[in-house]
Structure formats: C-alpha cells, structure tokens
Protein 1
Amino acid sequence: MPWLTNAELSLVLAILPAVVWAVFWRTTTTSTFPGPYPIPLIGNILPAERVEKVLSALGEKYGPIYSLRFFRTPVLVLNSASVARDLLELRSSKYANRPLPKIVEMSSFNRGIVLEHDPARLRLGRKVIHAIGQSRGIAEYRPRIQHYIATYLKRMHDTPREFMKHARSLVASTTLEMSHGYEIQGEDDPLLSDARTLVENFSHASDAGGYMVNWIPFLSILPEWLPGMQFKTRAYEWGRQYNMVSQKAYDWVKREMVKGTARPSMVAKALDETTRDAIPEDVIMYSAVQVYTGGADTTSSTICGFILMMVRHPDVGRKAQAEIDRVIGRDRLPTYADRDKLPYTNAVLSEVLRVIPPISATLREPSEDDVYDGRYIAKETMIIENIWGMLRDRDVYADPDKFDPERWVDFDSKHVHHPLNIVFGFGRRSCPGRVFAEEMAFTVVALILSLYDITHDCDTSGSPIIPAMAQTTGSIMFPLPFTCKITPRDTRASEHVEKFYTMYYQAPGSAV
C-alpha cells in the first residue's frame, strides 16, 4: 500500500514520468464495488501503521466488501467473514493464490507453502505438513510436547517476569522438534536464534504494503546507490538468511537419518516417503522451515495475548479458575482432553483471539475473472482479508471492543463468525497447523489458569499499571512488552509444577 518515507517520496517524484508511462501502458479496470475515490496515478493512500483499523473504519462507511486502488493494482477489502467464506471457501479453486509482493520474491520467501503459487507444489507442501499437523500426527509427538510444556511451566515458576520469552521458547522448541526432530539446547541455541531472526524478517517482508517496490516493481532493477534503494540490500540479506537456515536444518536431519539417530519429524517422514510420492527435496525443506515461521510466533502471540487480557480483566481469570477447580479439582492438572468440559475456559481463548488476533490481514488474488453480488472482480485483483476487521464486525458482534468471553459459551463453534473459524484463514490457504495451534494454546491457557494468579504491577506510588492493548506491526502481530505479576495460586500449584517437570523433563542432546 502506498505509504512513503521521505527517501521513497523523493525517488518516486524523480521517476514520475516513467511511472506515468507504466501506469497507463495498459488499461486499468475500474471496480464496480463502492470505495473511496483514488488519487490519480497514486491511488488510495493508507497509513504505515495499524492499517487493519483504517480498513475496518472504511468498511463501516463502504460496506463489508469495498474497493481501493494502489497505483494500477485493483484491490478489494473483505471486512466480513461471511463474504470471505463466499469467495475464499465456496469458490476456493478461483481464490487459492496469494499475491506475490516483489519484496517477498526478492527475499526468496515465495519458496514454501505460505506464498507458493504452483498448485502442485502447494498440494505437496500441505501434504507434508499434514503429516504432523493433524490429530493423528500430533499424537505421535505428544510425549515431546509434554516435555516442552514441563520446561515452560518450570521457567514460568522460576522466572515469571520473562513470560514472553518463555512463551516464544515453548512454541519454537515444539515446532522445531515436530518439523525437524531437533531439540533446542537452551536460550542460546544457534538454530533457535537463526529461526527467530527468520520469523522477524518474514513478518516484515510479508507485510501487505510495507515497500514501494511492491507497487512499482521496476524499482527492483534500479541501482542500489539511489535514494530509497536500501530495500534491495535488506531483501538480499533476508533471502541469504532464509536459504541458509532452511538448508542447515534440512541437512542436519539428513545426517541424523544416515547415522540412524533421527527423531520422528516431518522432514524425516517426508524423506522416507520421497521415493514413493516423488516430493521434491526443496518442497520438503522450505515447507519444514515454514512450520516455524508460520506458526511459532502466532501461537506464542496468542499465549502472551491471553496473559495481557487476564491482567486487564482479572474477573474473567477468576471465573475461569473457578470452572477448572469445579470440574478438574486441585489434585491434577487440566489437559487438552478436558477441553469439552471447560466451556468458559475455551470461551476465554476464543475471545482472546477475537480481540487481539496474531494475524492482522492476509492476501489473495483470483486466478480468473469473477462476479460477486452482481459486481465484476478482475483476475489478479488483490484481495485483502482484514482478519482484524472481521473480528470487530459491528454487524455481528455486540459491543465488539468489549472483552466478553460469555458470547462464546453457547455459540456454535462451527459457525463462520466464531473466531476460530476466522483467525486460521479460509479455504485452500487456511492454516494447515490449526489442530496443533488450538491444542497448544488451549492446553497452556488451562494450565496457567490452574496454576497461577495473574495480576497487575504497581508503580512507585502504588497505583496499578494496566498495560495497553498494543501490538507490533507486520503480518504477524505480537503484544508489545508489558509487565505483570504471575504467582503460584498456592503450595499445591508449586508441587504440581515440580512433579510435572520431574515426570516429563529430559536433558537436551541435539546439535546442528
């Protein structure tokens, strides 16, 4: 989306004649959907931050589906889950593609299922991930998942102030074990460090409109010494790091398989089946690394978002704790198998995902011309799924800014407007790791509620410090750092943590 730094603005003005020629070299289709009038040549201008909120506000004026234009690119914004379902699920064969921003292509992030354009490679990549992402696959890894949860609870008990780091480590450790059979060796593990950098780079590169080259692709061929060309160096470094980490982790699994010491993992399983199913090695390699980039920070963001909302709404936490005490008791810890017996706890997680989702928006494009509601949609129109806006739809949710888990207690979990059916996307591009993400998030939420009290901090004068509902920008949103108090509910909680840790912890023993 066209938001400009001073350097980029100077560059655009300098090459404006070429831009005019490029824009009018072919005819631009005028959308028949309502929307704000675009500025000639440039199109519609949006702010660089909190774009999802602006798109949502525009939806209140122009409706659940409306048009924008970014330079010569026609855009449709979907602020309604019902409309998204009509287009992206019921017509999934037409809307399976994601647009490929130029900065993503330059960074090599188009390699992997998240932005893969080749339908055959996409099917193979999703097949590889489904081997570990569905219920049957998760069952194979559950003992190892318990190991990492035990480590997480022990860290929360010992250093609760570092709850954000612990959440990231928990999900990173679990996803790397499931994808590559790799066991992280502490916070300074080199592969963990590389993977975290990769997630940060991927989030910046896949931000819907963060770089002008996405809208004026020929900028990519201009020399790097021109003002505003720093993105070329950045993209090169991102691509180098992405390819290095992907290859490094993949080669490690192959070495472990040769030695006969490979743990069960997505890569090992796919390599065993390669001769039969003819899955290209690069599909396996990049699909595996995107298990981490696509899932690690989203799930850890959900866990930290839950803690944030408990600080802001202690009454909700106490009510969920009362449900767990009544149903589970204090003699054991809740598990994922208890989910159906804990409707309010489940509702808390659903409402966390609604008010502070880890994904703000995703992109699609039709592979052929289409008509919806009597209006024309041109092939390769950019479709913005405004996930944040769908979850704040005032036509669906009463008082959408209010945190109210009660709205989900008796709500049909299969309904299109349930948060769990929105945050994981729609149709053929929905998250293939949804089953794992739901299990991990619910299990951790239930355990935290059972074991800990979460309260606000106080400043030097004794006044409560209530953290704001602020998140990072980019395609993956994470709560901004905040402080709170996390303390064991009683001595029994501390005993449970020690017992759980003793039962499931094993010393790490892997190395790249």
Protein 2
Amino acid sequence: MSVHESSNAEKEHLDDDRLDEELAIKPTQTAQTAHHDVVFGEITDEGPNYRNVGFLGTVILMMKSQIGLGILSIPSAFNALGMVPGVIVLCGVAAITTWSDYVIGRFKLNHREVYGIDDAAALMFGPIGRWFLSVVFCLYYIFVSASGILGLSIGLNAVSTHGLCTVIFAVIAAILGFATASVRTLGRITWLAWVGLPCVIISVMIVTIAVSLQDRPSSAPKGDGPWTSDFKIVGSPTFVEGITGVSNLVFAFSGTPGFFAIVSEMRNPRQFTPALLICQATVTSIYLIVACIIYYYCGSYVSSPALGSAGGLVKQISYGIALPGLVVTTTIVTHIPAKYMFVHILRGSRHLTSNSFIHWITWLSCTLGVTVIAYIIASTIPAFDALVSLIGALLGTILCLQPYGCMWLYDNWSTGREKKSWWLMVSLSFFVVAFGSFVTVGGTYGTVIGIMDSYKASGGASAFSCADNSNST
C-alpha cells in the first residue's frame, strides 16, 4: 500500500471514529452534559430523551413492527398462491425488504438530518417529493393503525364470544391505542414491545400446534369420516387473487418505513445493520414455520386472521394471549405517525424537547387525531383481509420498495462504476423500483375489486356493524 493510500485510510478511520462520537448518545447523560442532535436539537434531562434506544431495544422494536398484524394474513396468502409459490414470494419479499431496510441505515449515516422518509425524498426529489411521501407515510400508518384497532376488536369479540357490539369493541381498542401511544419516546415504549412480541408469537404457535393435532379446521365441513386438507402445492389463482396474496405478504414486512424513526432514536445508529439482520432472519423464519404448518393442515379453510383457524376454545385462548401483543402493535403504529407529525410541527422550536403546554397539547392532538381517523377507517372497512391487502398494495409498496432503490442510486450513482458490484446494485435498485410499481398498481386494483365484491355480498351493511367479526374465513 502506498503512503498516500495509507494516509487516506487513516483519515477515513478517524472520520468514522469522529462520526461515532457525534452519533452516539450515552444513556447516562445529564442536563450538564447535554448533546445536540441534528433532528431533535438539544437533548437534556429537562425534557424527553429521544435518543435512548439501545441495541436490544432496536431489535425488539423492529421485530414488533414486523410481527404483528401481517403474520395473521400470511396463511390466507398461501391459500391463494399455493405452498411453493407462497414460500418463494415470501422469501423474495423478505430479501428485498431487508435490502431496503439496510439502505435506510446507510442513508441515515450519510445524511444525519434525515428523520423520516419525506426528508430522504426532499434530498432526492425536492419539495414535491417531500410532500408526496409525507402524505403517503401518514396515510399508511393511519391505515395500519386502523388494522390494529380492527384486529383488537376481532380479538375482543373472540375472547368474549361477542359480548358487546363490535362498534363498541372498536371504540375500546381505539381508546387503548391512544392511551399507550401517547407515551412520548420509543425508548419508553420498548418494554411494551418486550411484552407484546412474545404474546403474538405464543398465540400463533398455539394455533399452529392446535391445527396440527385437531381432526379438521373449525370452518371445514363437519362429518363422521376422516378429513383431508385440500392445500395446494401450486395454486391457480386469478390475477386479483394472486396479486392480493402478494400484497398481503408485502404487508407482513411493511415495518420498513418505521425504521427511520427507530434509527433516529438509537443511541448508536451504527448498530442498525446487525440489529436489522437479526430481526429479519428471525421474522422470516417464524413466518415460514407458521404459514406452512397452518396452511398445510387447514388448506382453503384457513381463517383470516389466522388465529381463528382452530376455532372453539383454542380460538379464545390464542386471542386472549395475543391481545397484549395486538395492543402493543396498535401502540407502535399509532405512535410513529403521531411522532412524525409532532416532530415536523415543532422541529426547530424549544417546545420539541421541553415539557411546555404547547409541547403536550401538540403531542396529544397528534395521537388523538391519528386514533380518530384510524377508528373511522377500521369501522368502514371491517374485513381484515381486505384492509390488510389494501394497505400492502396501495401504500406499503410505495414505502417499502421504490424509494430505497432511488436512495441507493442517489448516494452511489457517481462513484464506483468501475466495479462489477456497482452494476449489480444499480440493476437491483431499478428492479426494486419496477417491482414495487407493478405491485402498487396491480395490487390496488385487485384489492379494490375484492372490497367492492364484499360490499355487494353484504349489501353495504358491514360498515359500522355490530355483527361478530371474529368468524371470517
């Protein structure tokens, strides 16, 4: 190595060390050792510490952002696609979204002023890009919050055997979501994720074991003779069914846009990539195990959400255990858009990191606004599968796929063209943009057709209905 190359390497190493010092926020800081964050401003003991999420906290928040409502719709996606295509598409979506998530971590290190996907869009596309992705981001998380409220109302119906009108259960779910989402920092929500994640995983595993032991799924035809699952190795879906299934799988990995907020509140953002790899490997493994077993034993009689597949007592037990996890999911997906709006309203103001009246009234207005709109959506589109598909297709793809190909190109277009890896990454970036655009258009079309068919079947009576919503298949 030449002297010039050696000096450059030493300079890069020193720059990295300096960047680590600037990025890292120690958990024991006091007001006398305040640090300035590019996004949040001065962080002291006089206000909330927005940079207090450690490595394990990052892993658990990522996993809880991914494992939630999405896992409950994967078996029904396999029913549309077939076992083998379902596994292939699931692994493909996992790989693509893992790359997208990796790009978020690198982009944050390169552009520390970025807090959300709209900041990245502003760098790449200017004010129009910021405005467009701001709207998409807020709509997406409000819709996901709606699916959380809907999932909670289904769980409450299942546990109580429809003890109250579904509209009332949705109100209870919305109140729970608002109360817990109003905790101001992700660092203080982390402990909820430690509780909620095991609850969802255990409940799904109970159903997975139960369907493998029972005679037949709860919705299968009753009879005295043996029942054989009608699962398909390769499905033969229509375009609408197939693209809806793909949209469901995209939704299962659609925690991606929330990772901007998580990396922004990490004490050391350089730990983002190893935390991401642990999260995605674990999440994908759980998805594959659960989806393959439940679909293998239930076939076309799999329920959506999947927790209802075993029926009877198992259904009540699984939903009972899952309820804390569903509350935590609703908490996180309500907190993230509320925090996004809150930061953008007060960014650059002393009220962002203080305990002033303006700080509190702005924060609670954001959480309440998200909750109210989400409740209305959950009551208007009460079919879980349809709502999940619509979110995944119309909004999830735009926030999980296309922007990250553009972000990689923005940071790397002018450097490294002499390397084969550069050409490979350019091709991957363009593929992700093209694939995401196809699923956005096709999936939205298929989902809207499905929702219209559902309304025709019910005569429009399903909106704001008191009927039990825990028995859908």
Protein 3
Amino acid sequence: MKQYLSVLKRVFTRDAAADRVVPPTGITARLTLFSAGAMAFLAVFALALSLAAGRLADRWGEDLARSSTIRISAPADQLSAQTAAALRVLEETPGIASVRALDAEEQRALLEPWFGPDLPVETLPIPQLIEVVEADVGLDAEGLRLRLSAEVPGAVLDDHTRWRRPMIAAASRLRLMGWVCILLLVGAVAAMITLAANAALAANARVISVLRLVGATDDYIADAFVRRFTLRALLGAGLGTLAGLLAIMALPGVGETGGILTGLGFQGWHWILPLLVPPLAAAVAFLATQIAARRALTELA
C-alpha cells in the first residue's frame, strides 16, 4: 500500500522537466482524450440503464405481487349479477385489502392503446374486470379460484404470476447487461490507453536513451508518462461524463409520455454515481500506463 501511495505522490507532483519527455500534443494525446471521453459518455448511459432497469424490476415486483384481476365473462343479462356475486365473495375472503369493479371509462382507457380512443365499450361484449389488492397477510389464490368457480361460473382469477416473473427476469437481466457494459468499457479504456502509452514510449525511444545516459531512472521516466496519460484520461472522462449527464437530463421525463423507457435516468443519491466515472477512468489509466511503461522500459533497456 505504501508503495502505491509513493508512486501516486510522485506521479501527481508536477515536474516540468519530466513532462517534456511525453509529447503534449499529437495523436496519442487526442486518442487518449477521445477514448476516455467517449467511454465515459457511454458508461453514464450504461449506468443509467442499469439503475432504471433495477427500479423497473422493483416496481413490477411490488405492484404486481400485491394485485390480482378477476375477469367475468357472462351474457349481458347476467353480467351485473355475477359481478355482484364476485364482489360479495371477495369481501368475505381473508387476505384481501380492497376490491373494485372497473367502470366503462377505466376499461376504455385500458383498451385505448390498442384500439384507439373511440372504442364503443358499451356496445361490445367486453368482460367485466375487478381489481383486487391483497393484504399483507397474503391471499390463498387456489382457494379463491375454487370458490369463484362454484359461485361465479364466469369468473377467472389472474394473480399476474405468469406476467410478473418474466417481466422481472427481463428487467434483472437488463440491469446485469448494464453492469457488463460498464466492465467492458473499463477494459476498452485500459486497452486504448495502453496502446497510446506504448506508441508514445516507442516514439520517444531516443529521448529515453539520452535520459538514461544523463542519469534518469526508469521510475522518473515512467512517472512522466503515467502522470501525463492519467491526467489526460481524467480530463477526457470528465468531459464525457458532463456530456452524458446533460444528455440524460435532456431525455423526456416519465410524466411527459408515461412510457416505460422514459424512466431512464438517475434519481436521488444515484446522481452521485456518475461523478465516480472520471476518477475510475483516471485509476484505470494510472494502472494501465504504469504496467505499459514498466514493460516498455524493460524492453528498451
């Protein structure tokens, strides 16, 4: 640990003479800035996607786990009687917090995304829907199904299990893919900066030979490269993170469209997480350049 702290202290102690070892401009500088900025921009979106998928999975799990729907399909002259019978059964069933029969306007709103706003619900043989909210003690779904089949022949209980599980699994996998993308971006940053550092070391082979002749140590030379590329990565990642945050804030909010994908973004303390991207990029650049510089200096010896 002390060794790494010593290296960090040497690296971030400015030395104008050592800084001249690494070219301040050129293709390596542009490559490092661009790659760090681009990867940070993508990392912000991958992080936002992963967190949004986690919130979505939690919301689906909580909302659908405590709700059920009863669908009553019956002739028009029997629909009201069966609805009343189903409501009576539900009110007598333990484990139910509340029940409510959806009116025509609510059922029209449910069908509107598929059939348009002018659907004549009153003239169509649409089943009556009853919303059931379960209590904390839980609901015996199988027992309720048996009682409904005996007293309300046209009633079918849907506890959303077949919908909830695949939706939660999909959201969880999407969250996992977001973190996998972040790890791949970290690896890509390390690879890009390693290539850039190797190119800079190879281009300055003669300068390194002269420095060795006048007494410069490999630590002194390596620190110059590590310092330059670490600061470049930090600057590029900072700019990329800022651009990513501005792009995230420009996305439409949930309230504007009500769609699922409009929830992409950060909420609460999660806004702190993107601020960790630039230091992480700098740490990756530090380690990658340190390893590349030591290996290259050994080969040039």
